[in-house]
Amino acid sequence: MAEEIKKVATDKTPEVKPADTGRNSDGFRPARRFGSGRPGAVNDGFDTKLLDLARVTRVTGGGKRMSFRAIVVAGDRKNKIGIGVDKGRDVSQAIEKATSRAKKNLINVVIVNGTIPHQVEAKYGPAVILLKPQRTGRGLVAGGAVRTICDLAGIKNISSKILSGSKNKLNNARATMEALKKLKAR
Pick from 108, 182, 175: which is nearest to 146 by CA? Predict the structure, then answer.
C-alpha cells in the first residue's frame, strides 16, 4: 500500500506555469513598469525636485535628537509652482512631508510667450532676487534655487541675478517665489 502511494506521487510531474517562471503566456518576460515605485503614489502632473536636505539637531535635556529637513519644489511646468519645507525622523519621511506641503502651497505664475511679462525684484530676509524677461531662444540664465523654480514653473526664457550675498537656498527660493507673486499680466 505504501509503495502504491509513492508510485502515484512520483508518476505525476508538476506542471510549470508561465507565471511561476516570471514569464507571460508567450514565454517572454513582461515589460518593466516605470514610475515612482511606491504603491499608492499617484501621478498628479507635478514634477518635484529636492532643493536641499540637511541633518538638523535639537538639543534636549536627555541629549541630542537628530532629524532631517527637506526643501522640495513642486511644479507642473505650465504655470503652477510651490515650495515645501518639512522635517522627519528619516530622509524619506522628510522628503515625503515636504513634497506634500509644496503641493499645498501652489501659486500661479504669469507667463507670456515662455517668459515673464516684466522685470521684477523681490526680497525675503537677506536674499534679494532680480528677474528679467528675455527674448525667445535665450534660455534659462539663472543659478541655484532660482533656476530650479523657474524650470518647474515652465518659464523657458529668463535672466536672473541674486543681488544679495546670500548663499542660503531656502531664502533665495522664497525670494524667487515672492518675485513670481509680484508678476502682473500687462
Answer: 175
DSSP codes joined into one string, 36-58:
---TT----S-EEEEEEEEEEEE
Q: Do 94 and 148 belong to one domain?
A: no
State which residues form the domain around 174.
111-182
Digit-coded pLDDT (tens) for 51-67: 999 999 999 999 999 99
C-alpha cell belonging to residue 137: 531662444
Mean pLDDT over residues 101-112, rounded?
95
pTM of the predicted model, to two decimals?
A: 0.75
For 147-178, write each residue's pLDDT tens digit: 999 999 999 999 999 999 889 999 999 999 99
Please indicate, yes or no, if residue 7 is contained in any of the structural domains: no
Cell of 140: 534659462
The residue with cell 512520483 is 10
* Residue of 47, 99, 41, 51 whose CA lies nearest to 78: 47
Count the Cβ atoms, other than its own, within 10 Å of residue 88: 16
Of the candidates 144, 129, 103, which has an alpha carbon nearest to the alpha carbon of residue 183?
129
